[in-house]
Amino acid sequence: MKKLDAKTESRIEEIINTLTLEQKVGQMNQFCSWAGTVETYGERIRRGEFGTMICGVANFSEDGSAEKGFRDFHNALQKIAVEESPCGIPLMFGGDVIHCYNVCYPVGMGSAASFDPELVERCYRNISEACARDGLNWTFSPVLDLAHDPRWGRCVESEGEDPYLAGQIGAAMVRGFQKDLDNTDNLISCPKHYIGYGAMDGGRDYHNCDISDYFMENWYATPYRAAVDAGALTVMSSFNSVSGEPVTSSKKLLRGLLKGQMGFDGFVISDYDAVMQLVNQGVAEDLRECAKLAAEGGVDMEMVQTSYLKYLCELVRSGELDEEVINESVRRVLRVKFAANLFDNPYKEYYPIDIDRHVADARQIASENVVLLKNKNNILPLKSDDRVFMAGPFFEEKISQIGAWASHIDFSLIHSYREALSDIVTMVEVEDEYDVDIPENNGDFAQAKKYKEEANKACFIGHSNHAMFGEAISHELLDNYKAIVLFLGEVHYCTGEAVSVADINIPEDQVELVRKAHATGLPVIGVMNFGRPRAIGEIEHMLDAIVWGWHNGTMNAEGMLDVLYGKKNPCGRLPMTILRHVGQIPLYYNAPNTARRVNAYYGEGRSYFDMKSSPAYPFGYGLSYTTFEYSAPETDRTEIALSDIDAGETVKITVKVKNTGELAGKEVIQCYVRDHFATMMRPRRQLVKFEKPEIAAGETYTATFEIGKRELGYWLNGEFIVEKGKFTVYVGENCYTENGVEIEVI
Ligand code: GLC
Predict the structure, then answer these.
(1) Rounded distance from Cα 96 to ligand 1 centre (Å)
(2) I need a surface site. Which of 15, 298, 632, 682 has the fewest CB within 10 A?
(3) What's the CA gap between 712 and 644, in Å, rounded?
(4) Tens of pLDDT along 700-739?
């Protein structure tokens, strides 16, 4: 958070000294705003009973009436707070504005697949602009949990398995939301769910995980460190426990790692009901003890429940809780409200936005995060007059592409593949055999709820044209079509909170569809609309081309078709490993090396008797319609003294990347480091930097990476150290690159 001036700091102390104990605890309490009226809440605000509200998100309305109602209601509550509450402290109004507002962008995993922080920041600036004018000033986003387990439903909300990429993308989201924090068209961000939420046993939500300090500091904490450095004003703690300690009451993780080592000076809010869940987790016998443990642990604000409101004053007065704990939390809450300019500019006003620009940005990211995994015989890109046979459960889909936690969506902007095709191809023949009647979704949630029941009944929605691959059709196909395009995917309802899946393989009915299409002898192109990286071992060999499009939001169809028909040269890269089989979990690229020369990830030796142990496709992987050639990396020095590194000196690594094809294309130039010998086992390699330049056909781009303390060092027992010894710096197209140069720290 930006430093507040002395005048503001003294004003904060003055407020703390003026408020009663009850009113201070009120600032640590959050209430929901969806169940009452200005009158019912007005009295509680005048008494200073809560400092923030969780508000949901305004419903979308064509004429803006719902949004105006939402804005007016929260402005009215704010007016009471500013004019009639103790010390006139403004309220924060928070909601789950995760990756969309009017226009929907890709889920977190999809943003990470773009490897383009600037583009992501622009999209999140759009979300902030579109949302802030309707009344919210705070969002419970981004999700920065490191995901090693694709069974976990919320991996789709995360930025994948790499600490550095998640940090770069997450920091871009924070900057996009918060902007200049003048409280006109920005939102206060809230990176979540701190910490270890993506590491739970079996990918099962709300469960436990066991993370060593070493892995915590060097893998899981990294994205949060980047978000704190980017100025995130609030952080949400997570439901899970880490190594036998609930995060909600963990002094070690909240006061030690987050507020201490990372220097986070905003405030921590619990997750929903998480404070009272300390009873379930067996560390507190009642809500009074929950309140004590969470407040002492470092949770500055309780989301929605009232353990704090009910018990903190009594705990202070009985001498069981130091009042300074309360003062410190209130200080943090007030600092955030001042830093977010809520005292000087507490209300929200309507202003126009350029929705066409938002849609254009959505289309850009929905095409530039598409990952081309396979393209046998260069069957892609298609030409607009190619006769291709289109089928699959996602060909008509118009809801699941919005992903988990999507709300306030203008559904009129969303097209199915079938609808979007008409802009690109002259003729489309589609068999209309459905498994499930698909109601026209007019964007209202009653309809979508009905749709969900239908969808869940059929599990995977839409039509699966098994009939068309019968004997007769297949001969007709062979004579008349260039390829079959199958639009596969998962409904967004099987991603997100509390919907982990035990089996991440491709659903059987879609495997069957691929099998039948493959049996025709025609090339088969798999368009994968899965929010999470599902295991593709059963179908990979039957597909001639594979393009992964995530749940890509409003422009999901257009973005993918831009790639399929060559309007865009694919430049997405995998933010999370794609496995062959669920049995390989966990398998991620930046694990430490192994004892024997058997390393499953890198295909060394044999880890499983019954199948190949390497992943189907590795982290950072993705193809282009052109080709790129990397020169061997050059370094300006092969040795560097430890003292020079500590003084901030760096090694400059330079690589030339030539576009050796006929098409211009963006390449994600990835820089990895391996520390060969250290006190602790270091990753086989870890991503430390990347660039994504556009390189014209035949042109050469020179990439220069400065490798210094941050890239060579690691956290050990709370201290960031660099140790002497041999390092290799690799620069290449994905984590498998061997294009490296050795340097020595002496
Ligand atoms: C939920 C989620 C969290 C969300 C919060 C408020 O349980 O875990 O991501 O922001 O509650 O809705």
Answers:
(1) 7
(2) 632
(3) 13
(4) 999 999 999 999 999 999 999 999 999 999 999 999 999 9
